């Protein structure tokens, strides 16, 4: 007879509670570095069709393919994305320190409207607050080089082992996830569709809109068109509000400067071309890789940016969408359990 003071049920409950506490401590200890593991999971799903085609179908060496995918991700995705962030940080800092250009625009609007609504001190204070907020979400390499290197290292290191030990990794998921095999397959397919929609689909839409916005501003001779086009790439992840936050102020700038033709031209291109190309691409991509409600995307962006910084533009909608999928799975599992329980009660004893 055991001398343990706990019953079997109490032992199970305490074991689960201990696991949850330890998991919470691990997540808390990882802090912002958790984005490295989440990024590895996203890249694993994005590049897995290439991995399967090269390794499983053509029989290439999985280690060489894994290293090749890591180099591709670093050179084509990570470094350019980092360069864009650094560019935005530097330009925002510049505009915050030199408010003369912004004040000139505001004074022009005041002269046109005949109403004084700001002064330089208020503008400078507002810009400094904006830079302080953005600096927490757009970290520069100069201030957080070690943090950046650790996150990228964790992401690439994790991604390498997810590919080289693909069978063990997927087997572990099937073993420890609390779902039936059919449900796990459905979750995997849902995850692939959500990643494709939020990462590949939204990135493509944002890139097209950014190119159109930057080209439009350059044609109509808006200063620093490259920077504003780059900024529109990140803003395009925000539904509805996205690129209008760039080209609408640019049009107002031209109108206040007396360049009516250029201002009207920017407005027409923005309303007719840039906004409609967004809707058109979303319809086309929704047929191919799935669709996500704009409200989910908007709420996910707000949630993600506060938690993960600039990466929250992708991770926020991704997590929120997958949360909704898990709720649907939980609902269906409970319904199936009730049906099976009802059928078993109807059987003769």
Automatic annotation (TrEMBL):
Localisation per UniProt entry: Membrane
Family matches, as InterPro entries: AI-2E-like
Main location: membrane
UniProt entry keywords in alphabetical sequence: Membrane, Transmembrane, Transmembrane helix
Membrane topology term: Multi-pass membrane protein
Listed transmembrane segments: 12-28, 63-89, 145-163, 199-220, 226-247, 259-277, 297-327
Family statement: Belongs to the autoinducer-2 exporter (AI-2E) (TC 2.A.86) family.
Protein name in the entry: AI-2E family transporter
Organism: Hymenobacter tibetensis
Classification of source organism: Bacteria, Pseudomonadati, Bacteroidota, Cytophagia, Cytophagales
